[in-house]
Amino acid sequence: DFGHSSELAFVVEPSDDIAVQEQPLILYCQVEGIQPITITWRKNGAMIVDSENAFMLANGSLYVSRFQRVRGDGSSDEGEYDCMAQNHYGLVVSRKAKIQAATMSDFHIHPQNAVVEEGGVARFQCQIHGLPEPVILWQKNRMPVNTDNERYTLLPKGVLQITGLRAEDSGIFHCVATNIANVKFSREARLTVSGSHSTVYKDPMILVGPENLTLTVHQTAVLECIATGNPRPIVSWSRLDGRPIGVEGIQVLGTGNLMISDLSVQHSGIYVCAANKPGTRVRRTAQGRLVVQAPAEFVQHPQSISRPVGTTAIFTCVAQGEPPPQITWLRNGQILETSDHIKLKNNNSTLSIYGINQADEAIYQCIAENSAGSTQASARLTVLWAEGLPGPPQSVRAETVSATTIQVSWEEPLQNTKEIIGYVLHIRKAADPVEMEYQEAVSKSTFQQLVTDLEPSTSYSFYIKAYTSRGASKASEVTVVSTLGEVPAMPSLFIKVINSTAVQAMWEPSIKLGQHEGFKLYYRKVHLSQYTGPVLLASNVTAYNITHLDASMVYEVKLLAYNQHGDGNSTVRFVSLRETVERTVLNPPCDCMKDEQNNKTSATGIIIGIHIGVTCIIFCVLFLMFGYRGRLLMCKNVQEQLSTPQIPRSQRSAAGIILNGAARRDRDERDLNGKQLDMNELERLFPASPCQEQQDQAITPTHSPSAAHADTQVSTLPLDEFSIIEEQPDPSQKSPRGGSPAAPAPNHGPTNEG
C-alpha cells in the first residue's frame, strides 16, 4: 500500500513539464479517499483561482488554455505547481511540478573554417542552449551529412568529427538546431583537405579531451576524446579509481569517444582518456568527471497508525537519492513545527509525537527532495479517545529524600475512578529532551512512589497518568524537584616510605569520588589524640609528602575528599618508620659497584664487578630470610610456654591496657569515627623480641581454671611501649609498673585512661 493513508492519498501527481508558448497545458492530479474530497491548486505557494486562462477540470486536473511565458501585466505561467486534496480526515499536498517555457537561444559557438592535411582529423562544433535540449544535425553543402560513413561521427552536444580525411571531404558545413520552440541554423564553415598523407613522425596528442558532465540516471553520457599523431595513436579509457568500466551499456563512437547508456549512480567517477603510440610506452592523457544524480525515492514509507491519548506515535520515512535528499514533514499541508512533544531525529527520518492528544490527529506527509527531483508520502494519525476516562491525577507532590531518592505522591482523579487499573509515573531529567523520559508503573491502590537511583544535585520532572482498560487519562500537572547534593566517596590511599623521616601519601583520581573540590589530609602519632592538619589539597593533586617525622614512631595518616555539601568518609592508613631504621642498621647496603668503578677500563674488572654484585645480593637475601625465620621460631617457643586465657566478655574487669598512656581513649575516639584498628596490623607495627616475651611472663595473669577450655590468644607487646594498670575498687590504689595484678574488679564498662 506504499504506506499511504487509506482515507486520502494521491493516485496521480503533477510532473515537471516544458510548455509551448500560446499552446494549452494540462497538469494532472488524481486523488482517492473517503468523500467528500476538495481539490485545489497552487502556483509558487499561492492559490489559483479559476479564470478564463486557468481552471480545474472535473477530474481534478488543471487546464491552462494559452500558456504564456510573459503576460501583458508582467505575470508568467512559469513556476512550481502543486495540487492539494482535503477531506474531513485531513489535507495532503502533492509534489511540486516545475513548469518551464520552451525556448531556444542563438548559437553561441559556430563552426570555424579548417585546413587539414590528408589523413588527418577534422572537428567542427556548434553550441546552443534551449528547453528542451535542442537536437543538432549537420549538413554538408546544404545536404544532411551521411551518417552511414563510419569516418563521420556526430556527438550529441553538437560536435562533428571526421577522421582519415580525404579530398572528397572538402566542403561547406553548418549545423541545424531543433526543438519544440524553434529551428535555427548556424553560420557556415569551409573544410579544406590539403596535400597528401605525411610520413613524418609526430608524437601522440589529444586535441579534445572529455568534459565534466552532470547527468541524471537513465540518461546517456558521451565522453569525447580525439587524438592525432603519426603513426595514428590508439585511444583507450580507464577510471582513475581503478574500477573496471564494464561492458554493459558501453560503446565506442568513432575512433575514441566513450558512450555510456542508461546511466546509474555507480557510473559516477573520473574517466581517463589515453592516446598511446603503437608499440611503445609513449602516451598522453586527459580526464573528465562524470556525476550521475538520482531523484529522491522512498526506501520506507510512513505508515498510518492509531494510538490512545497520552501515548507516543512514531512515523518513519527513509529516502535515498544522489545527492542524499532532504526530508521535510508536513501536517495537514503545513510545515510541521517541532516542540517539546514533537521531535525529529535521524536527519528528519523519524517523527515522534509524545503524549498525543486529539489535536495531534492529522495527516502527516514526508517530502523527500534533492536537485534531481522530489517525492512525497503520507500517513494518518488517529487518536483513540474513549468516553468516561478518568480525569488527571490531582495534587502531585515531589519531596527530596536523599541525594539519589525522591518521594512522589498524588491523589485520585476527581471523576471516573472506578475503572482505574493503575497509574504510570513519568520521570525525566528536567534538562533532557522528552524522548529521554522513562516510566514506572504503580498499582491502583498506591498513591506514592519512591524513585531511586537518581543523580545527586539534579532536577527531575514528574507527572502521573491514570490508566483504564480503555485508555489513559490526561497527564497531571508537572512537578519539578532537585535531589540533594552528595558528599564525595572515600578515596583510595597508599603510603610509601621515602626515608626514616618522610613518607609519601598517594591516591588515585576516580570518577567514583563524584564531584569534589579537593582533599583534606591529616596525620598524627598513634598515641596522640590531636591530628596535624587538615592540609588542604586541590582536586587535581594525587600525592603529598609528609616530612620531619620521628623515626621511632608509628603514624596514622587520614585522607578525605570534600565538596560544598561537606566532607566525605576518610581512608586511614598506618605507617611505621622504626622498621625502616632497623632495616637500615641490620642490613646495611653493600657497595656492589666498588670493584666495577675501580676497573672501568678493564673487561676483566667489569666481569669481576658483576660477580661480586650478584654474590652480595644473594647474601643479603639469605641473611633476611634466615633472620626472619629465626625470629618466627623464637616467637613460637615463647607462645608455647605462655597460656594467657581470654577472659569472657561478661567477666572482663574495667582494667585496661594503656598504649603509651592513651590507647583506650584513642580507640574510643576512633570507634566513634567508624574506624577499627586491625590487630594484625598492630602486631606488625609492634613486633616483640624474644627477650621481651620472657619479661612478659612476669606480668601474665594467673591461668584461670574456668577458662581452661577457652581459646587462648597470646599477644606479644614490647614493654617499652605498654604499661599494665589494674583498677581497684578503691580509686586511690594503683598497681605499680610491672607489678602483679590483684583480683579483677567488677566490670563497670569501658574506661577511658589518659
Automatic annotation (TrEMBL):
The chain crosses the membrane at residues 603-626. Residues 653-672, 690-754 are annotated as: Disordered. Pfam families: fn3, I-set, Ig_3. Keywords: Disulfide bond, Glycoprotein, Immunoglobulin domain, Membrane, Repeat, Signal, Transmembrane, Transmembrane helix. Residues 663-672 have a biased composition (Basic and acidic residues). Residues 691-705 have a biased composition (Polar residues). Residues 392-486, 487-583 form the Fibronectin type-III domain. The keyword Cell wall biogenesis/degradation does not apply. InterPro entries: FN3_dom, FN3_sf, Ig-like_dom, Ig-like_dom_sf, Ig-like_fold, Ig_I-set, Ig_sub, Ig_sub2. Belongs to the immunoglobulin superfamily. DCC family. This is Immunoglobulin superfamily DCC subclass member 3. It comes from Penelope pileata. The lineage of its organism: Eukaryota, Metazoa, Chordata, Craniata, Vertebrata.
